[in-house]
Design goal:
globular; seven-stranded mixed beta sheet
Length: about 120
């Protein structure tokens, strides 16, 4: 079992930056991939970025060049550095962990609001 705790959300102006953190605890040795998803009001949850245990990363086209996903294995923490934020980035951002390439765990979500 994995527990995920997110932090770092907030209110910023367009063009600003935020760094989201997701701390994992529990059976972290079994995590093969982690990622960030976001969900805006009235819309489906969508992938933002993922990172595997091997370090491979994937980004949604809408955030490429602006967002960077990284991890600190010693702290069992994954980060999402968000630069050049746009109002359309406004959403609740959820941390996601995958164990054994099968079991999925979600964090509680953290609100990111970008004002124009």
């Amino acid at each position: 079992q994995v527990q995920l705790v997110e932090s770092g959300g907030g209110l910023v102006q367009a063009g600003g930056s935020l760094r989201l953190s997701c701390a994992a605890s529990g059976s972290t040795f079994s995590i093969n991939a982690m990622g960030w998803y976001r969900q805006a009001p009235g819309k489906q949850r969508q992938l933002v970025a993922t990172i595997t245990s091997g370090g491979s990363t994937t980004y949604a086209d809408s955030v490429k060049g602006r967002f960077t996903i990284s991890r600190d294995s010693a702290k069992n923490t994954v980060y999402l550095q968000m630069n050049s934020l746009k109002p359309e980035d406004t959403a609740v951002y959820f941390c996601r962990a995958e164990r054994y390439s099968l079991y999925v765990h979600w964090g509680q979500g953290t609100q990111v609001t970008v004002s124009s």
